[in-house]
Amino acid sequence: MLIKSLELKPSSVKKATINLPGSKSISNRALLLSSLAEGKTHINNLLFSDDTKLMISSLKKLGIKLEEKEHLQKCIVNGSKNLFPSKKNDLFIGNAGTVIRPLLAVLAFNQGEYKLHGTDRMHERPIGDLVNSLNSIGAKIQYMNNVGYPPIKIISSHAKKSKITIRGNLSSQFLTSVLMSSPMIAKNENLEIEILGELISKPYINITLKLMKLFGLKIKEVKKNYFMIPSNQIYKSPKNINIEGDASTASYFLAAAAISGSPIRVNGIGNDSIQGDIEFIDYLKLMNAKVKTGKNWIEVTSKTKLKPINADLNNIPDAAMTLAILCLYADGISTLRNIGSWRVKETDRLSAMSKELRKLGAKITEGKDFLIIKPPKKLIPSIIDTYDDHRMAMSFSLASLNSKYKKGSFITINNPNCVSKTFPNYFDFFNRILV
User: What domains, with CATH codes, occur in the chain?
Assistant: First the structure.
């Protein structure tokens, strides 16, 4: 059911345990690699959300046989040995960057013709660097409207060069896409991949590399920002893969515990996590929260007064949004740096975050790639616009955890349904931790 807005009354948090849904980043990578692999793969704890369902529907249209068991968070995928059966298709990708970018790279050399398009916002998200890199080695990818942006058309072609360069300073998804498509490119010759400039969000590349290796691919990191993929490889199914809990999702509940002082444990992620957003707990500690961890769990047990931070958050751009809300509760001015990638996400998150934080009474300085946040003495009850961005809705829900609001005051979240992109039941889970 679509809800235009959701009122969250000032609330306290109780001791709670949350079993996390699967990671979106790992889920979509696992679905794509399983589809390209030789053999059948059983994916467990798969996230079922808008983005993963868009990946599943696209893979089905491309001829992949999948058996979905959403009530069990499972999916069985029959792999296609590096090539999709469908050679002509029109794919709607919504606003899912983790779908359109890797599919573009894989389909570029699938010897078929394809159209990829999405929502209006997707058509504003740049993809030119990835297209340029693929076209430079023989792909035939055309823009259907605006140069540098979807919608795009792919024409059947073959890779003609064995070295590809890709810029790393706009989105790590571009490099991830080239890496995952490398067996389709490196058929007769080894493929060399060179990253130009600074590589942002490096932990997401580590997820990609670890999953590719799990699926049997040999990858050589020749030197910093330079990979070599040996030729004539095929992904091999690992038979079973368990998706760890989503670290970005964990940040909201751990932050709630840090704000309230009530212990909250999240299950499904811990010391062995391959996700970069696990670093969120390091910033919680810097802000004076008390954190415990195990192999498959994290718990924030208590807090004293939260301290402000001055931090480079290049590695955790998604969880950095949660930190921005935590800074409202800190005892001083905080600076969040190196978050320029926010501008090309589901919305311009730097601009959106600045505007909505000001509504709550914070004094904000917005730079090209940073935010300076001076928290108010008391938060102002406000109507929060979410810009159809799931992380805006989930992050700002934490602003309701304040007993100093006037009685009868509310934080109102507009378009709360946008959380369906990665966590459809978020507000049900959120309500479980409230007194």
Answer: 5-21+244-432 (3.65.10.10), 24-228 (3.65.10.10)
